[in-house]
Amino acid sequence: LPQASSQFLCVALCQRGTGKDMSAALASRLAELQELENRMDQVKENYNECLDTIWMLLASMLVFFMHSGFSLLEAGSVRFKNAQNILAKNLIVVTVGFLCWYFMGYPIAFGAYKDPNKFAGGRNFFMDEFWNDKSKFRVWFFQGTFCATGGTIVSGAMAERTQLKGFVTFTVLMTSFIYPFVVYWCWSGHGFMNYTNDDGEAVSIVGAPFMDFAGSGIVHLVGGVGALTGALLVGPRRGWCQDASPTEFDGHSVPFCVLGTFFLWFGWYG
């Protein structure tokens, strides 16, 4: 009987030890699976981030390419003597416009405070805090191309009757203040035209929130109002509707106009 009891105790202890080993192995495997799952989630997140970046860069480059279409269309629509002037204006819109977007435009448009107001932002000057959230780099470039587009619309409306220094002044004002304020009101998620109320619903000060598609209600409205205002201020071209012949003010290059139209058409998909 004592020998049988000893054998039973040894078997029980061995089984108990085996259970502990199995529990430890199972816990180890579960920990490994959890670590693997976390790694897969991180890989998936990085993969999605790469896809988002590639997609936004592609769209940004298409919109950026539209400036070549604007340049060709506007150059072909003016007389030969003014082609160089209109091309310079298109180049200024992109270069000066992006610099103004970097200095002042983006902070007003998307630099919402931690306790945001409904009128304008005031953070992220000179790309401050961008390294804390690198997705802001792609947003900055994507939105910057639209900002420059708003200025380009005006250059065509005032073609052949605006001095370069006057247009540079307008470009600085447009890309630093006018366009960014409108963007904050409608696109930032905090402006008075589209913000989230206490119930988590998107609203505006007049009820329903502002909704836009492809910039049609912001880029072209702001650019169009600027173009109309500029055209009214500078008036018609000198000699227009007076003693000039009907063809004196015709554009000098129809091929430029056609190529510019196709470039704009292609860039519009951005």
Report what the structure shows:
The protein is mostly helical and 270 residues long. It has helices at residues 2-77, 83-110, 135-157, 164-187, 219-234, 254-268, and strands spanning 195-196, 202-203. The chain is built from six helices and two strands; from the N terminus they run ααααββαα. Helix 2 (83-110) runs parallel beside helix 4 (164-187) and helix 3 (135-157) packs parallel to helix 5 (219-234). Strands 1-2 form a two-stranded antiparallel ribbon. The radius of gyration is 31 Å and the shape is elongated. Mean pLDDT is 86; it is low at 4-14. Strand 1 (195-196) and strand 2 form a beta hairpin.
Question: Mind sketching the topology for me?
Answer:
Elements: H1 2-77, H2 83-110, H3 135-157, H4 164-187, E1 195-196, E2 202-203, H5 219-234, H6 254-268
Antiparallel strand pairs: 1-2
Helix pairs in contact: 1-2, 1-3, 1-6, 2-3, 2-4, 3-4, 3-5, 4-5
Quick tags:
2 strands, 270 residues, 67% helix, mainly alpha
Main pleated-sheet profile: 2 strands, antiparallel
- Discrete helix count: 6
| Outline | elongated
**Helix-and-strand structural type:** mainly alpha
Which percent range fits the helix content? 55-70%
Straight-line distance between termini: 89 Å
Mean pLDDT: 86
- Please provide the count of β strands: 2
Low-pLDDT parts are 4-14
